[in-house]
Amino acid sequence: MSVNKIWKDINDEKDVELTSLIKKGNWGKLASHNPLQSIKKTLLMNIAWTAIICIAYMVIIFYFNYWQMQLSIGVVFIFSLWALYTAYILYKKIKSTVSSSASLLSELKRHHQSVTNWINMQQKIALFIYPVSVVGGFLLGGVIGSGKSVEALISKPLFFYTLFGAIIIVVPACYYLAKWMFTRSFGKHLQALQENIDALESEK
Amino acid sequence: MNETTFLEQVRQNQGIIYKLVSLYANDAEEKKDLYQEVLLQAWKGWHTFRQESKFSTWLYRICLNTIFTQQRKKHRVEYKESLEAFSPAIQNGVFINEDVVRLRQAIRQLSETDRAIISMHLDGYENSEVADMLGISNNNVAVKLHRIKQQLGNLLTV
């Protein structure tokens, strides 16, 4: 039997269970597992949480009347606003629906780029925000925990050593933890996309 | 261009979805997930369908773009096709012969992009149409197709 004839037989195959999915009003029940859709959901959660955290920072800035703390929390606040804005821009930019007009190669590249952009953005934000967050958190925790003023706290060299130690440990730890999580979540997917891009671009 | 028309078009062309999904899914669960995702993406993109092209070509593109960008299981699991797995098809009166199983298994042993090229070729698409859908040159399609046919021939004669 010729390959074309066998292929024709394959074309005639149907599956009752899968066919039952094609029915009116079923679209709301179908959940998309598109990775870009998941990233968009995560971005939306990030935006919501960052907005809540920004409000909390504002409360702290007005409640604690120590300029050192207001300065460090203020810096974190500005970075958080920047993170919120960046997340929003990326959220708007990511198109989670599959294009019916783009070629497979350009869809693969767009997909790969969107996932990579998101990972890079998260890592950049982490590198800038974690150190200032540690300083802000340290001052806040110190003031609330000890009941002393910021001046009293920073007058002790031990405070600076501990703060420096915390930054040295926490920032790389968080950065590499995030990197590991991204690799675990999207590493294989990115690799598969890249392999198919390379396969299509290869002239061999 | 309402939902009823869309459903009618999809029902008439559901073989495309089923066939392509079966070439890429690693197990029955993934097959269902991919099938659902294609349906959803087709429904979301339905407003972009222009009557200038055939619905089947439009659906083909949606299918490939969805399957390739979906997060799938990395390791190729040998998807053993047994008669039980096809019981719904058998109930439907479609006879699954050994040749079908052999051809599908041979195609599944090709690389992912090669599977797309050979299925489009077998579905009667011209090299220029395959090139347009994949985003590569005509020449590249011809070269790849020649190699794929040789590879497939070897796999089927084993």
Task: Give structural notes.
The complex is a heterodimer of chains A (204) and B (158). Chain A has 204 residues and is mostly helical. Helix content of chain A is 79%, strand content 0%. Chain A is elongated and about 90 Å long. Chain A starts with a helix and ends with a helix. The mean pLDDT of chain A is 85. Chain B is built from 9 helices and no strands. Chain B is globular and about 50 Å long. In chain B, 32% of the residues are buried. Chain B folds into 2 domains: 1-71, Rna Polymerase Sigma Factor, Chain: A (Orthogonal Bundle), CATH 1.10.1740.10; 96-158, Winged helix-like DNA-binding domain superfamily/Winged helix DNA-binding domain (Arc Repressor Mutant, subunit A). Chain B is mostly helical and 158 residues long. The chains are: A mainly alpha (204), B mainly alpha (158). The interface between A and B is large, with 55 and 65 residues.
List keywords for this structure.
heterodimer, A: 204 residues, mainly alpha, elongated, B: 158 residues, Arc Repressor Mutant, subunit A, globular
Write the layout of secondary structure elements.
The complex is a heterodimer of chains A (204) and B (158).
Chain A lengths: L2 H9 L4 H4 L15 H29 L3 H27 L10 H43 L3 H5 L2 H45 L3
Helix pairs in contact in A: 3-4, 4-5, 5-7
Chain B lengths: L2 H10 L1 H11 L3 H17 L10 H15 L17 H5 L6 H11 L3 H11 L4 H8 L3 H20 L1
Helix pairs in contact in B: 2-3, 2-4, 3-4, 7-9, 8-9
